[in-house]
Amino acid sequence: MAKEQRQADFDYCEKIIKKHSKIFYYAFSQLPSEKAKAVYAIYAFCRTADECADGNHSSKKKGQLLRQLKKELDLFNDHEELDKPLWRALRQVFNTYDMDITPFYDQLTGQTLDLTFTPPKTMDELERYSYYVAGTVGLMLVPVIASRSSAEVHSSVISLGVAMQITNILRDIGEDYREKNRIYLPEDELIHVHYSQNDLHNGTINEDFIRLWEKLAARAESLYSNFLCNIELLDSDSRIPVYLSAHIYKGILDAVRNNGYQCLTIRNYVTKEKMTQIIVAANNVFGLREGDALTVEK
């Protein structure tokens, strides 16, 4: 494959992550170039899968798109991939790193769960779903960011992915309900705190809602801590980007708290001030001096 073609393929993937996730693009752009390109390609696959399941299509069309993507993944797995930028870029990634195809298939399983969505009955069910749609991403990245793979590394990155997905859910409660008619909060927890679908429909934020929200947030924060305690298991050149991703995403929880738990009618973001604090902390933790120090503008 010509060098120019490879660059164009990875540029295609980079545009996707840059457009759809400023957090991940900022964080993973700190990686060495080859690793950053690999992450961009993996993200592009995940984004493609997500758009199949959550795009502006009918349920029937979404199912067709996901089945088509699975067929394309099957072709890729058989080394007969379509001549498209995404698959050419992923082939380069698979040729460079000791990749495992399983989490890519698991990701499609997670997106299919959204097509036949039923609210999780328990926290265990929510975490199982979170593994498929987000924990799998961590497993995809392991060969890129952790050359010394182990069961401990796998468990750690799954924890991070699940924490991020629970964070997404806690940020997007109102949006998921209004736009997708989905409630990801576990049914048994809703019953326990006496918070009803009618309360959600009315945009009610009361002590019951906050109690439930904080219970899920505490679980997410515990999973973030589990991951961060093991960050030394990652390659030295990969720790800072993943540290940034984890802390910036974790910051979304505080953003919701600072807005009085209003996540039913507005979307909460990490402020530039908070981003700066996280970046300063990263510079201190990793001992980065002037010239090598991270900046918020990148």
Mean pLDDT: 94
Helix content: over 70%
Fraction of residues in β-strands: under 5%
- Fourth-level CATH superfamily of the largest domain: Farnesyl Diphosphate Synthase
SSE sequence, one letter per element: HHHHHHHHHHHHHH
Kindly give the count of domains: 2
> Rg to the nearest angstrom?
19 Å
Supply the number of helical segments. Answer: 14
For the terminal residues, how far apart are their CA atoms?
A: 31 Å
Unreliable residue stretches: none
Largest sheet features: none
CATH topology of the largest domain: Farnesyl Diphosphate Synthase
Shape: globular
Secondary structure tally: strands: 0
Name of the CATH first level of the largest domain: Mainly Alpha
Task: Specify the CATH architecture of the largest domain.
Answer: Orthogonal Bundle
What would you call the structural class? mainly alpha
Question: What is the compact description of this entry?
Answer:
The protein is an all-alpha fold and 298 residues long. The chain folds into two domains: 116 residues, Farnesyl Diphosphate Synthase (Orthogonal Bundle); 169 residues, Farnesyl Diphosphate Synthase (Orthogonal Bundle), CATH 1.10.600.10.
